[in-house]
Amino acid sequence: MMWAGVIGSPIEHSLSPVIHRAAWEDLGIVGWEYRRIEHDEASVPEFISGLDESFRGLSVTMPCKQAIIPLLDAIDPLATAVGAVNTVVPSSGVLAGFNTDVTGIASAIRRACSQAERALPTSAVVLGARATASSALAALGELDIVTSTVAARRFGGPGSVVAASSRLGISIEQVLWSDRGAVLRAVSGADLVISTLPAGVADSLAEEMTVREGQVLLDVVYSPRETALRSAFERNGGIVAEGTDMLIFQAAAQVQLMTGRSPKTDVMRGALEAELTRRARPSGGGAAS
Predict the structure, then answer these.
(1) 2-98+245-280 with 102-241: one CATH topology?
(2) Dihedrals phi, psi of 217, to nearest 5 degrees
(3) Domain spans of the chain?
(4) Residue closest to 105 by CA, chosen among 145, 60, 62, 135
(5) What angle do CA 5, 76, 157 make, to 5 degrees?
(6) Which of 66, 117, 152, 165 has the fewest CB atoms within 10 Å of its CB?
(7) CA 52 → CA 47, 173, 257, distances in Å?
(8) Domain Shikimate dehydrogenase substrate binding N-terminal, which positions (predicted)?
(9) pLDDT at residue 286 in the model
(10) pLDDT at 251
């Protein structure tokens, strides 16, 4: 049986199986299995070495997005520049790594602005400085924003957004999270705010920030959907780019890489929304990852 899957840790509540299976069903792909695969940085090398000809692709989530890179035979230039791989596919006998988070972020922002009949943003601030923040910088480059502010607790370490910005040719102004005044000024002055922070980390900032009408937010947290950042934007006339759209668009690109066929994002979105609704019920349980 041919199979693909999502790898990371923890992986139990990943939504990738829901949206990939929906895409496969709509495309008429049968006899394939989509798996949840629990591995971290320490155990992923043994897993990769054991892949056989039945393997058709991996969606890669944390903490494996950097750890998997040296285990692959070829890396797409964009994934190399970002410093993170979220997709692995077999290609002509080798394992190739890609990053579809970039197109997911850019497409979610484009969709939100189009729906609101607003021009695309021309300035941005990114909250956070790890792998998703690096993908956000690359997405900003696709939106022709080549100078941005990044606010984070620290900027060093593996997967640093600073190294990614240099490889991408995008200039960043670094603002420490502890300098609350500087963070608030950056947020209030930007057309677009992208939060790559875990759930709850930006809540105190949301209480203090000033949101302008038409200012755009993409919060990568989508479960729970009603984050403090989102509420602040909605109360003050901001535009919210859905974190679920980021998930859908990056997964659609993964389906294309794994199957060679283009899925319908509306079908994938419908399956995702139905699953989130199910999980929101008292008997549904769990948070998405």
Answers:
(1) yes
(2) -125, 135
(3) 2-98+245-280, 102-241
(4) 135
(5) 85
(6) 117
(7) 11, 45, 18
(8) 6-88
(9) 42
(10) 98
State the Cα angle at 72 between 261 and 31, rounded to 5°: 35
Angle between helix 16-27 and helix 265-280 axes, rounded to 10 deg: 140
Blockwise average pLDDT, block size 10, the chain, 289 residues: 96 95 97 96 96 96 94 97 96 95 98 97 95 94 94 84 92 96 96 95 94 96 89 96 97 98 98 93 51
Contact by Cβ (8 Å): 142, 168: no
- Does residue 223 contact residue 197 with C-beta atoms inside 8 Å? no
pLDDT at 59: 98
Q: What six digits make up the tokens of 161? A: 């957004």
Q: Cα separation of 106 and 250, whole Å?
A: 10
- Extract the tokens encoding 79: 């994934």
Tell me the sheet residues that pair with 38.
8
Give the predicted TM-score (pTM) of the model: 0.93
Cβ distance 18 to 289 under 8 Å? no
Residue 128: CA count within 13 A, CB half-sphere: 23
pLDDT at 144: 95
Q: How many CB atoms lie within 10 A of CB 127?
A: 26
CATH superfamily of 2-98+245-280: Leucine Dehydrogenase, chain A, domain 1 (3.40.50.10860)
| Strand, helix or coil for residue 194 | strand
Q: Is residue 282 reached through a cis peptide bond, with omega within 30 degrees of 0 on the bond before it?
A: no
Instruction: Check if the beta carbon of residue 152 is closer than 8 Å to that of residue 177.
Output: yes
The verdict on whether 65 is a catalytic residue reads: yes
- State the pLDDT at residue 288: 38
Q: Which one is catalytic: 20, 39, 65, 130?
A: 65
**Does domain 102-241 bear CATH number 3.60.20.20?**
no
β-strand 55-60 against 2-8: which pairing, if any?
parallel
